[in-house]
């Protein structure tokens, strides 16, 4: 009977692998997650860290590295 | 479950639904009342019932050729859009359902983003696209119906595909295979096997697309001038006519509601059948 | 059998889809000539009637010859859906087409879209519009960006297109708003009006009311000449309405708390009468705050805004949802004893029984003024309010400038003015004032036109800001907050001037 | 046997249309978001501004306030609509005489254009000739004036949206309810589960896909609400109902600040995407785990 609840017909189908992220992800998911995190960190950086000095570029670089890590290992 | 209790439940249901109906109908009723009032009658707030009918509010727009053109445009745009969308969506969902197309699923998540973003900022690129990119001599896509039809596909297609996906997935693949064995081609399968089985879903998808196209305002206002104007933009025009012509505006709103109402009466049964978003297989 | 019927339905289905798509595609090509004729069939106001184009011009043959090279061309224009523009679209456009063979595709739309669309068009250089409505407050923004065609130059370059009937000198001084420093004209005025102080003559001359008023306030009831009197009258009539169970309040108030019109009412109608001109912006330094040499948050400006906010208690309840349109509707419904109503509405409020319940009861006067402001106005330092209106200009991106030039001259003919003036209460040419139709309407509308002619010089166009809408948009929320009672008038203006300065700086004005 | 070529071929027209009319503008908006582009600034045309628009955005009280209001609005309407819609759908599962009539009346608002909804509610609420202000004052002595009371304006937009969209939620819920299998429910009742338990442990988990999908559609549309509110209040009084869609429209058009408006739009899109992602990736999986543990 559980079968009926299975098919979440969302636009994203999740047939992926399990990395360090707490769920199965495919490449697309991991890229999305990286982008989401990238934007979030950059915005927070602009708001809270940049007034103290370091330019947002550093934040962006950091996020790119993090993104690569997520895409490969997530 | 005694008989008594279900009777009580029934009465409760009726009370509930009568109240809901009043709540639903009140604004619509008031709109119709205002549409029956002349300008000098407007400011009489306590008057709940309307006995006179100021027909000019209706005859003025209805006899204006410009307004007739708006209605015609709206009908053509909405209908073509709905037909186009369900045709393409049928193809697309069939493809997604029967072939393994790497990455295709993910694409749709991105395309539905167009429906997520606030529309205003997207008007400028679309305007440029319509006036610059799609230009052939004197022809440009700005102020054409085809432009709006194609544009509305962007909003409706992902939605329709999403709605249909579960339904097509629910059609057993054995049917396809049996037909293939009988020597039928893919197209034959599509319209002889899939189409009839997916019909309720297609219908509801078509209706929802039709509604969206009929109701859309912002893009229609920005991307048309006079020729391809739709009824919703006509409605907005009435808001700014000097001395705000509330009566006529209400009349236009009432008129714009009618086709939808007719649709609703005929198809409301199928709405429930088709709206499952593929949650449950047959 | 079954298979066959399926195929048939499929074929029919496909045919329907294709025919739909085909009509959709084919549409834009076909009706190029149609729209103008379509619209002509339904004149908005019966008064407008059809015009015989041949009688309007002294030499129809000249128009036909001059337009020969542009025959069949369609010129596209855009304007707000107001009576003057609708008249131009529905009556003048077809008349022009009959005269010249040039089609006029005239889009009348909402106030917002009237700005958005041509600006987008001109900024992108698309060339969709061949003539656009330019309000006298936006013209400086357009000129700063070279959006408009120099019509004087264009006429000089094309002497074969210069009609003998067309004469720029016959316009009222309103046309000066559309000239650059060298006197070149960039737009042909199509509507102009002042925003007068309207009052209910029947109430103001009712002996019983006059007596009661005198008893309460110690002076005679008459159209207010000072802000205190205006407030007294508003208070008096609100109470009078309450006591007598009437739907009557003291004053109209264009105080929509989510629409630009309330900011306009403050800056163009109220603030000048207190002596705050040009929005309180110092136009030499582009500064607004008092500390930086502006006057937007001066005590006088704060008093002016406070006065407006105070008036709200004597305004009909719909005031905080009223733009210029609703204000006119409110006054026409007899719900206010006095108020500031845009002049384009004056005549229908005073004359049209189908739309107005105060026909024949409308008095027209000058707005109340603070002490010493009249002297400032007469010295030319200030103005009593905006001389409002607009013109049709030709965007520099237009592809049919010559055809549009003929149209511009056509709407600037003396002969088309009187009927147009009746349809839209607008006057842009001196001679129109003397027309018998206008004189007749004038008599019924408490000499509105005469007052417009005589007192017109006290009014003036908007200050020449190159960033009109941008700064106004930044100030709007503060005026709205003050009107909604979320903020005191003083705080609102203190913050508004800072934001105005920031916006001007972002735009590159002032440092 | 199955050549992918035909699959892609069937998908192609969809992808082309979505690509041209969907993705191109999207990339253009991203591009413009990095420019300082105001039609009427002293410097003509686009100036590359790097992250300046975003730098300004994160400190823009007006924008942040508007985002907050929009989220509050979305939270209120979606919560009310989901609960109300679910409960109403429950009453419609059983047949009773006249159900079709009620359902038709009830579904009417879905069909009305947002801009007409705004017009309708404006007619209903405008003092002077609207019903609500008059009767609220007469019967309850409430001064109802959208133009001056922020709270009233906010809740009126909420009620308007509930009026407009609850029917849609009800219908999708009803579709879900009619489609789920009846046997487990009956079995559970036989086993002595009470109504609440059936609802909590069987109906809701089985309905999860429908619930999530509907939730997503409603959140998405509530966050970009514009036409109806714009017509009803214009975003007023002051900024009480200036939801993000209206704010962006104001920035992009009347203020002709294309670059800044694009940046705002992208941020809102980002927000919606993250919400959608959380909804689908996390919630749906959690729901799945719960049920599979049972």
In short:
Chain C is α/β, with parallel strands linked by helices and 511 residues long.
Question: Would you kindly provide a written description of the structure presented here, covering whatever features stand out?
Answer:
Chain A is mainly α and 74 residues long. Chain A has helices at 27-49, 56-73. In chain A, helix 1 runs antiparallel to helix 2 (56-73). Mean pLDDT of chain A is 74; it is low at 1-14. Chain B contains 12 helices and 2 strands. The relative contact order of chain B is 0.14. The model of chain B has no long low-confidence stretch (mean pLDDT 82). By secondary structure, chain C is α/β, with parallel strands linked by helices. Chain C has 2 domains: 33-191 and 388-457, 3-Layer(aba) Sandwich (D-Maltodextrin-Binding Protein, domain 2), CATH 3.40.190.10; 223-386 and 464-506, Periplasmic binding protein-like II (D-Maltodextrin-Binding Protein, domain 2). In chain C, strand 1 (74-80), helix 5 (83-100) and strand 2 (103-109) form a beta-alpha-beta unit. Chains in contact: A-B, A-D, B-C, B-D, C-D. Chain A binds chain B through residues 4, 7, 9-13, 26, 28, and chain B through 103, 105-106, 108-109, 112, 158, 162, 165-166, 169, 277-281.
Question: Helices, strands, pairings?
Answer:
The complex is a heterotetramer of chains A (74), B (282), C (511) and D (294).
Chain A: H1 27-49, H2 56-73
Chain C: H1 2-26, H2 34-40, H3 53-56, H4 60-67, E1 74-80, H5 83-100, E2 103-109, H6 111-124, E3 131-135, H7 139-144, H8 151-157, E4 188-194, E5 197-200, H9 201-204, H10 207-217, H11 227-243, H12 261-274, H13 299-311, H14 324-332, E6 338-340, H15 343-351, E7 362-365, H16 373-378, E8 387-393, H17 401-411, H18 417-424, H19 436-444, H20 448-455, H21 468-484, H22 489-506
Parallel strand pairs in C: 1-2, 1-3
Antiparallel strand pairs in C: 3-8, 4-8, 5-6, 5-7
Helix pairs in contact in C: 2-5, 5-18, 12-13, 12-21, 14-15, 21-22
Chain D: H1 4-32, E1 35-36, E2 47-48, H2 52-57, H3 61-93, H4 99-107, H5 114-125, H6 131-140, H7 150-179, H8 183-190, H9 195-223, H10 227-232, H11 244-252, H12 258-293
Helix pairs in contact in D: 3-7, 3-9, 7-9, 8-9, 9-12, 11-12
